[in-house]
Amino acid sequence: MSILTERDQEAVRKEFQRMLGPVKLVVFSQELVAGDLCRQNEQLAREVAALDDRISVEALNPAIDRERAEVYGVDQVPAIVVEGARDYGIRFLGVPSGYEFSNLIDAIIVASSGESGLAEATKTSLAELDADVTIKVFSTPT
Known about the structure:
The chain is α+β, with helices and mostly antiparallel strands.
């Protein structure tokens, strides 16, 4: 059974018209840890990728593909890495459904362009930081 309705698929296809380049969704799953959620996460990623030829999916198991998981900094499942021309650090932990789904679509579009969309003043301020900063956004379906 499909996760995305035909209406959702059409809306996402329209959004993907803004894509500028290829994007890879690296999906981390581990059946023994979170089987149902991991299957749902991978199915969602594959359904999204099927809507545009510029999107590919690579499925990995962090217990088997330890080096890749370490490179991506993924230590939880289910997870999706959104990677454009390079890894911009965009990660989704858990299944990006509900309100988070639109964030996944936006992340794909941003990663395809390689541009953050930040104002020049913001980029200048960030360039002045003397250490890397990790930003984590948490959401809960309520």
